[in-house]
């Protein structure tokens, strides 16, 4: 198969994943973000990169957003929210973060392939995405992509869709958001 043909198949997989999304679950995350004082993002590996991209867009919307583990990340309080991106929902470090956030009475949301996972059971809001775990075991979805790629790509698209919904609710457009874009580059 040629490279462009792979791209077509990947886009078809993403289209199928998008059609499986539950809009109600997504709206719960949007509403909780708007109700929170600070929003914390966490994920491991490539899922963590998607979380960082989401944190940046939240900041562009004027929302106090932080990536867990960064040196400028403040403390979590009762009025805050932790959003975790985890395909398996079992990553030990992320589970520990979710437990800590819950003990501090912050709300916890997880975006995962497995809502029944340890983090999923702990979370206040669980969003199920399509995808295969990194080892392709225990998967209901077939993908040509390696490891967790389908989940990670769908995670980024889901986070971008949440941003669009937040923009709509706040009455923002790209021009408004650009006012918070980095300017020391």
TrEMBL record:
What the entry lists under CDD domains is as follows: SIS_PHI
Query: Which species is this record about?
Result: Paenibacillus aceris
Q: Would you say which domain of life the source belongs to?
A: Bacteria
The record's section on PANTHER family has: 3-HEXULOSE-6-PHOSPHATE ISOMERASE (PTHR43443)
- Residue stretches making up the SIS domain: 29-172
- The EC number(s) this enzyme carries: 5.3.1.27
Keyword Isomerase applies = yes
Pfam families named among the record's database cross-references: SIS (PF01380)
| The keyword Protein transport is annotated on this UniProt entry | no
The protein's name: 6-phospho-3-hexuloisomerase
Q: GO MF terms on file?
A: 6-phospho-3-hexuloisomerase activity
Entry's family note: Belongs to the SIS family. PHI subfamily.
- List the keywords (alphabetical): Isomerase
């Amino acid at each position: 198969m040629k490279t462009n043909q792979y791209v077509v198949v990947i886009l078809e997989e993403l289209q199928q994943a998008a059609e499986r999304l539950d809009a109600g679950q997504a709206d719960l995350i949007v509403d909780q973000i708007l109700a929170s004082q600070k929003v914390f993002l966490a994920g491991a590996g490539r899922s963590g990169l998607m979380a960082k991209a989401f944190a940046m867009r939240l900041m562009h919307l004027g929302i106090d957003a932080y990536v867990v583990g960064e040196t400028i990340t403040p403390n979590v309080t009762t009025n805050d929210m932790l959003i975790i991106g985890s395909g398996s929902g079992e990553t030990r470090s992320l589970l520990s973060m979710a437990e800590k956030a819950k003990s501090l009475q912050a709300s916890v949301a997880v975006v995962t392939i497995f809502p029944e996972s340890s983090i999923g059971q702990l979370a206040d809001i669980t969003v199920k995405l399509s995808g295969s775990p990194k080892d392709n075991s225990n998967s209901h979805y077939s993908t040509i992509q390696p490891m967790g790629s389908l989940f990670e790509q769908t995670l980024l698209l889901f986070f971008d869709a949440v941003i669009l919904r937040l923009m709509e609710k706040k009455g923002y457009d790209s021009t408004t958001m650009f006012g918070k874009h980095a300017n020391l580059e």
